[in-house]
Amino acid sequence: MIGNTMSLLIPADIVLATGLSQEELLQEIAIMLFQKEKLTLGQASLLAEMHQSHFQHLLASREIAIHYDVGDFEADLRALREMERI
Fold it and tell me: Taken in order 64, 12, 38, 6, is the CA torsion positive or negative?
């Protein structure tokens, strides 16, 4: 569903309880989903609202290995092709 968006509302008190900004919380969620192999590198960087190279640097700063295989590459290519159609 690339191109379609879905809003996710997180109560402000929950965000405040984390001690993180909204931007930081998005990055943390993206990192967690990437580590659990629920998102590809490209998908996680989009969720984190970061350029992929910046997201890679964020992962590296936390010593998180990048698992990026042929399937991930193909999924990212499909996502890019879908984005071009929008």
Answer: negative
| 3-class secondary structure, 66 | coil
Handedness of CA 20, 31, 54, 78 (dihedral sign): negative
Among candidates 76, 9, 62, 1, which has minimal Cα distance to 31? 62
pTM of the model: 0.72
CB atoms inside a 10 Å sphere around CB 58: 17
Q: Which residues contact 69 (CB under 8 A, 6 or more apart)?
A: none
Q: In degrees rounded to 5, what are phi and psi of residue 55?
A: -65, -40
Please enumerate in sequence order all residues whose Cβ is within 8 A of that of 54, keeping only pairs 6 or more positions apart, or say none.
Answer: 45
pLDDT tens digits, one per residue of 3-61: 577 788 999 999 999 999 999 999 999 999 999 999 988 899 999 999 988 999 999 99
